[in-house]
What we know:
Blueprint lengths: L9 E5 H18 L2 E2 L9 H7 L7 E3 L2 H9 L4 E4 L8 H9 L3 E6 L2 H10 L3 E7 L13 H12 L3 E8 L10 H24 L6 E4 L2 H6 L8 E2 L9 H6 L9 E11 L4 E4 L3 H4 L18 E4 L5 E10 L4 E4 L14 E5 L3 H5 L4 E5 L10 E4 L5
Parallel strand pairs: 1-16, 2-9, 3-4, 4-5, 5-6, 6-7, 7-8, 8-9
Antiparallel strand pairs: 1-10, 10-11, 10-15, 11-14, 12-13, 12-15, 13-14, 16-17
Helix pairs in contact: 5-6
The structure holds pyridoxal-5'-phosphate.
Amino acid sequence: MDINHLSTPTLILDKARLQRNIDAMAERVKALGVDLRPHLKTTKSADVARLAVDGNFGGITVATMREAEYFLENGITDITYAVCIVPSKLDQALSLVDRGADLKLLTDNADVAGAIAGHGGLFKVLIEIDCGEHRTGVLPDSPELLEIAGILAAGEKTELAGVLTHAGHTYACRSKDEIIVVAEDERAAAVLAADRIREAGHPCPTVSTGSTPSVMFARNTDGVTEVRPGVYMLGDMFQVGIGTRSIDEVALTVLTSVIAHRRDDNQLYIDAGGLALSKDRATAAFKGDDDVGYGLVCDLKTTKPIAGLRVASVHQEHGLVTGDRPLPFDDLPVGSKVRIMPNHVCMTAAAYDSYNVIDGDGGFGEVTAVWGRCNGW
Ligand SMILES: Cc1ncc(COP(=O)(O)O)c(C=O)c1O
């Protein structure tokens, strides 16, 4: 089916762009000399995972137990659940292990480490390190790090698998040079934590780092064993703003219909509002044209931006499109379609159960496949 006939709003995934983004990251990571454990929390799709890892055999990262279940059901066994585990999820984790998952759990808490060690299940566990984002994780030079390591190492069936950190604060950077500095802080924190664990006499085989910006721009990965970028596969307008992707590399758009004109106000409405696009305003951090409101309005056939149009505000199911020039109302009659490049693709994609896949390379095309996603928890 040609995408012009799809019911809107819906997701269009440009497979040629996706594949190029995946290939480019694979090359980049190879040059860095580390393993790639892509984060699948953005795409949540087994079809995408198979392109991003080596068939079913590469390791992946997930952010929910639901994703871990789904990817295991789809034959991917090497899974790191990169959100701190709580004791109430250990039975579910063990059931994944019993079904063949090579599952790695994450903690930054001595009590949870004790619960894991005392559970009786065969668990591999990473300790989360705070490298400056100040979300979760222990500081690399803290006494808690060695306390948790000691508890996990003493667990009869528990394997201390290593350390994991995420430089989410790369997203506060506004230049490549700033990202290079944060990427080095990330590496240094993970390596310091690993060195301290080893000096205390414990194993620390995995040293895991990575956000898309830090992997793209890191200068040095000495001591790191794997990286976990994720959003690079699809890209979005925030990634364009911080320079990890260009507009013609953004692989995901929301197909939407023009539902109303307000010529006197130089506005039109589309059927993609806050639910279809998300209310993420990440690009508000940028000035001028790099702030695309709730999304950049692009041409149905070429995926090129249309005359500076952006989604200026959203209601639940309405998006208000405007621009700083007269809108091309005659080219966009009510019922015509446009494609929106989202601000933050992880949030936008989460509202949909599937992707309409085209081989477009930025262009127009037939839907060649429909790929499922796993949402929820
Ligand atoms: C723990 C962890 N690792 C890796 C990633 C992937 O980073 P990015 O979204 O920049 O690709 C994330 C993203 O939030 C994360 O939370």
